[in-house]
Design brief:
The complex is a heterotrimer of chains A (197), B (441) and C (423). With 197 residues, chain A is mainly alpha-helical. Chain A is built from eleven helices and three strands; from the N terminus they run ααααααααβααββα. Chain A has two domains: 128 residues; 68 residues, Arc Repressor Mutant, subunit A. Chain A has a three-stranded antiparallel sheet. The model of chain A has no long low-confidence stretch (mean pLDDT 92). Chain B contains 21 helices and three strands. The N terminus of chain B is likely disordered. Chain B is mostly helical. With 423 residues, chain C is mainly α. Chain C contains 23 helices and three strands. The C terminus of chain C is likely disordered. Classes of the chains: A mainly alpha (197), B mainly alpha (441), C mainly alpha (423). The interface between B and C is large, with 39 and 57 residues. Chain B: Pfam families: CSN1_C (PF21151), PCI (PF01399), RPN7 (PF10602). Chain B: Its main location: cytoplasm.
Chain lengths: 197, 441, 423
């Protein structure tokens, strides 16, 4: 079983490609008749889906893993636990599951990378969904203690009301490209032509 | 509170005025008085008088009133020849009014004996006319039969007899006569589709109709529309009824009813402009409204946005309106519509409305008002959203540009989906077709 | 034996030019009887190169695989077929599509027999690509591939195939199954819109007899409509077959009742209904979907509030949508904001939610690109429509039919396309 592409992707930190690489490799080795299950890097495969925010695929992969393997490879179960917490929108639980397992050297980087983007994503969610949020909840969402969370928020320009322990969110202006390139005009002309003929 | 109309101060004053309980307008409102059945019955004649009394007896839910009403109905029936109605009322009285109001078999026998004789006589006459082929006499003969059946409560036969005069009508007058008879019986039978068709038949006659006939036909048409819940059309018909109606159609409707039916239907279905032009500025209808001052007042209150007073009047009228044979089924709907209209009209000119003030004007709680507004917004009758935190209603102005983009994209994807689905269906049809073809060969 | 030997020689010689291959094809057809002999063809297969002698190899392989085999042999057989599918020449095998399909079905059967559906997935996809003249053609293998994906839990792989626009169908049954399995995959991946589209195709398809696929599809259609749109209309589009319009409702009563209970908007009533009809839904394997229907009602009710309110306290939201606490309401609102289902901001300090308008301004380059691509797509589609229309109006069979049965001809199936697109 040749997993070199996967190893390379992990080494070059192309974490967003892990899921696709694993999916394809798995189909390939299966077609060749290899009994791959025992050696398959299920934990990495699961984490690849989780990293790509594809919890559905992670869930189906989890369902396809033989029970015997789930038993002998606790890391597989630990990886799925993260997915499960995401599935249930247990925002704080995700951080707990990440911290709650002693990840192997192979998965460590991937988990850490996921943890980073997840924290960032949760920060953005809080910024979008809240106008005021308690320090306690912010800490829970971001997987930090209250001091860290406060510091993190203040750095982003939020303000803290000491008395109520509430953070007031600073909305970031959305910057989006609005320039039109001349090729579009050409295409519009073609549409008009199409409509008239 | 922001106001888009030109005279904000005036509008503000009026709305504030609504809140106060000591407003002078309130003195006009009398508490829901019990219906004066005798005065009510005096407005009607013929069969409808009795039927209306029986209806009140069945729906008033007040034993005293019921007894009184049944007594009046009994006395009234005794003056006529309808033994069926007589039996009905005696059954309803059920001996509660003493021996004087029991089953008078002697009376029934004599009425029925006379009826038999009269029927024989009418039959002989009609046969004679038919042998001699005298058109006018045959018409009269059938007409007499119609009158006879009507008097005895055989409505179906009466209707048939009146209709049969049709082939023997020689003048427009005859046709109108036939139509009016058919309409009268149909209303009694509750067959309002017949009413509509005979009204239009009468209106189609080439000769100019007498004003009183026009007025009667408008009333009948109005009733027919009311019955099928077409309140706007009903309102228009009642509003067109001319003063010639007077007390000439009491076997169907009283001029007071024209005011009530027309006024309520108009409030429930007209917009502000129509209400002003066709009701308030309608000098002809004003005469009718004078007969029912409460309805006149509540319409004026509605138009001048004195909703609290308007709702008071409506509340007081309700019990009596529920005893009206034609209005009974529609009171709830009309009242709801009027309330909705008032809520909508209240919010209309504003960019924002204070819900506490509005609740006051509509004599309800803020929470209750929120629920009502929620329903109206959900049905897209009010374009606004509720700031439940500050208890303010804000008008909502959709961004046309964004809405257009949204709709275009949606239409595009629907087209995409529909065309692909259609082509797949075409494939299946093609397959079936080829199968059939190859089987034939 | 000699003739089999001769056949192999012939195959080796005649697998070059198109002309040769076509000659070989007629020879192979004549030799079919011979290939039915229960002799071991395995040694002969070894002498052929599947990539060069694809047609011949296919004939031999098909004969070889049609014999009953043991479970032990199944493994070998799968490998043999997978290797052939991966290396065979597409033009050659398209000369004998039936044989190719039969071999691939054998692959599916064996993979399922070994309880290893994943072994067939990639080869089946390759087989589809080689068999179909273009990605617009539906093959008989499409449903088999989707079924393998479902069994192997490779939903995402299945979804890739569903992204093709299908315009050409040979057998109605292929389409029915393709749509049904496809819808199941889409449901699994929460692609409800696409799933509805596929189920809609099954339910409204022309049919003269009601089939079980349509009944099951209608059940799922009701459920997915409720999940995705929050409502279900019992009215069929007018192009739906009479059979379906008349009969589908009789077989799906609990589902229709569910929909009508849903429309009342009362979560407790809906839960009661589901509880008392649990067995029926479980029997149909739809209980999972039914549960999603129930939880979608919270979402629907909250969405309705956004249409009406500018601000609303979390407590009021909890009361109105029958949630236990303001915190629970907050979590529902947060989830919906995260999924882009509502636009709102939560104010924890005051315990209020402020609902806002969709911030999309239709000004960004990304949006313009999106609009542009849908315009292009629709233009291509309407061109296609014109072409098919022209093609059909020249079809002799069609012309003969409308000539003969003009009075019977029904335009219903075509009139939902606006006239202006039809120029």
């Amino acid at each position: 079983m040749d997993l070199s592409i996967l190893t390379e992707a992990l080494a070059s930190k192309s974490y967003d490609k892990i899921a696709v690489i694993c999916d394809n490799l798995m189909l390939q080795v299966a077609a060749e008749g290899t009994a791959f299950q025992n050696e398959w890097p299920y934990a990495i495969h699961l984490l690849g889906h989780i990293y790509a925010d594809d919890i559905n695929s992670a869930r189906f992969l989890w369902k396809s893993i033989p029970p015997a393997i789930k038993e002998v490879q606790p890391e597989v179960g630990a990886a799925w636990k993260i997915g499960q917490k995401l599935w249930l929108r247990d925002y704080g639980g995700v951080h707990e599951e990440i911290r709650g397992f002693n990840w192997s050297p192979e998965t460590q980087c991937l988990v850490a990378a996921f943890s980073d983007i997840y924290t960032r994503k949760m920060f953005q969610l809080a910024a979008a969904a809240y106008s005021t949020i308690s320090v306690q909840d912010a800490a829970l969402f971001w997987g930090m203690n209250e001091d860290e969370a406060t510091k993190y928020a203040l750095l982003e320009g939020w303000t803290l009301d000491e008395a109520s322990r509430m953070l007031t969110v600073k909305k970031q202006p959305v910057v989006a490209e609005q320039k039109l390139d001349p090729g579009k005009l050409q295409r519009l002309t073609e549409y008009m032509f199409h409509l008239e003929h | 509170m922001d106001n888009e109309e030109e005279t904000p101060e005036q509008m503000m004053d009026e709305i504030y005025a609504n809140g106060g309980g000591d407003d002078k307008r309130y003195r006009l409102v009398v508490n829901g008085e019990q219906l004066d059945v005798e005065a009510y019955a005096a407005l009607y004649s013929g069969r409808t008088k009795i039927v209306r009394l029986l209806f009140i007896a069945d729906h008033c839910g007040n034993p005293m009133m019921r007894s009184e009403t049944l007594r009046m109905a009994y006395d009234e029936i005794k003056k006529r020849e309808d033994t069926q109605l007589f039996r009905e009322v005696v059954q309803k009285i059920d001996g509660t009014l003493g021996p004087a109001y029991g089953m008078d078999s002697a009376w029934i026998d004599s009425v029925e004996r006379r009826a038999e004789q009269k029927k024989d006589k009418l039959e002989n006459e009609l046969n004679a006319y038919r042998t001699n082929l005298i058109k006018e006499s045959i018409r009269m003969g059938f007409n007499d039969f119609g009158d006879f059946y009507y008097a005895h409560g055989a409505l179906g036969d009466a209707f048939k007899s009146y209709i049969r005069t049709r082939d023997y009508c020689t003048t427009a007058k005859h046709i109108i006569h036939m139509c009016l008879n058919a309409i009268l019986v149909s209303i009694e039978m509750g067959q309002f589709s017949h009413v509509t068709s005979y009204v239009s038949k009468a209106e189609l006659t080439p000769e100019a109709l007498e004003p009183v006939t026009v007025a009667k036909l408008r009333c009948a048409a109005g009733l027919a529309y009311l019955e099928v819940k077409k309140y706007k059309l009903a309102a228009r018909k009642f509003l067109e009824v001319g003063p010639e109606l007077g007390n000439n159609y009491t076997e169907v409707i009283a001029p007071q009813d024209v005011a009530t039916y027309g006024g309520l239907c108009a409030l429930a279905s007209f917009d502000r402009t129509e209400l002003k032009n066709k009701v308030i500025d309608n000098s002809n209808f004003k005469n009718f409204l004078e007969l029912v001052p409460e309805v006149r007042e509540l319409i004026n209150d509605f138009y001048s946005s004195h909703y609290a007073s308007c709702l008071d009047y409506l509340g007081n009228l309700k019990a009596n309106l529920l005893l009206d044979i034609h209005l009974h089924d529609h009171v709830e709907t009309l009242y709801n519509e009027i309330r909705h209209k008032a809520l909508i009209q209240y919010t209309h000119p504003f960019v924002s409305v204070d819900l506490r003030m509005m609740a006051n004007a509509f004599k309800t709680s803020v929470a209750g008002l929120e629920k009502e507004l929620e329903a109206l917004i959900t049905n897209n009758q009010i374009q606004a959203r509720i700031d439940s935190h500050n208890k303010i209603l804000y008008a909502r102005h959709a961004d046309q540009r964004n809405v257009t983009f949204q709709r275009v994209l949606q239409t595009g994807s629907e087209f995409d989906r529909d065309v692909r689905a259609m082509l797949l269906r075409a494939n299946i049809i093609k397959y079936d077709f080829h199968q059939k073809q190859s089987r034939k060969i | 034996m000699e003739t089999a030997e001769a056949l192999v020689v012939q195959i080796q010689a005649l697998s070059g030019s198109a002309e040769d291959v076509s000659h070989l094809h007629s020879c192979l057809k004549q030799s079919e009887e011979l290939l039915r002999q229960p002799t071991s063809l395995a040694p002969f297969l070894d002498r052929l190169d599947p990539s060069k002698h694809s047609l011949g190899y296919l004939y031999l392989l098909e004969a070889f695989t049609s014999c009953p085999i043991s479970k032990e042999q199944a493994n070998e057989l799968i490998l043999l077929i997978v290797r052939f599918v991966n290396s065979c020449n597409a033009e050659q095998i398209r000369l004998a599509p039936d044989k190719f399909v039969s071999v691939c079905k054998r692959l599916k059967d064996q993979a399922m027999l070994l309880d290893a559906p994943i072994r067939g997935v990639s080869a089946m996809l390759t087989a589809i690509r080689k068999l179909q003249p273009s990605s617009e053609h539906l093959t008989t293998l499409h449903p088999d591939f989707l079924l393998l994906c479902i069994l192997a839990k490779c939903y995402k792989t299945g979804l890739h195939l569903l992204e093709d626009d299908i315009f050409e169908v040979d057998l109605p049954r292929d389409l029915f199954l393709y749509c049904y399995y496809g819808a199941m995959i889409c449901v699994g991946l929460k692609q409800f819109q696409k799933s509805l589209e596929l189920l809609h195709n099954v339910v409204t398809s022309p049919m003269s007899n009601l089939n079980a696929i349509a009944v099951e599809a209608y059940k799922k259609y009701i459920l997915v409509s409720l999940i995705h749109h929050g409502q279900f209309s019992t009215a069929f589009p007018k192009y739906t077959s009479n059979v379906a319009q008349r009969n589908l409702k009789n077989f799906t009563q609990p589902y229709l009742d569910l929909a009508s209970s849903y429309s009342n908007g009362k979560i407790s009533e809906l839960e009661m209904f589901v509880l008392s009809n649990k067995d029926k839904f479980e029997l149909d394997n739809n209980l999972g979907l039914v549960k999603q229907v129930v939880s979608s009602m919270y979402k629907r009710n909250i969405q309705r509030l956004t249409q009406t309110y500018l601000t609303l306290s979390l407590q009021d939201i909890a009361n109105r949508v029958q949630l236990n606490s303001p915190k629970e309401a907050e979590m529902h609102v947060l989830k919906m904001i995260q999924d882009g289902e509502i636009y709102a901001t939560i104010n924890q300090k005051d315990g209020m939610v402020r609902f806002i308008e969709d911030p999309e301004q239709y000004k960004t380059c990304e949006m313009i690109e999106h609009i542009d691509s849908s315009i292009r797509r629709i233009m291509a589609l309407s061109k296609k429509l014109t072409a098919i229309d022209e093609c059909m109006s020249c079809d002799p069979l069609y012309l003969a039919k409308i000539g003969r049965e003009r009075h019977k001809f029904d335009f219903d199936d075509f009139d939902n396309v606006p006239q202006k697109f039809n120029t």
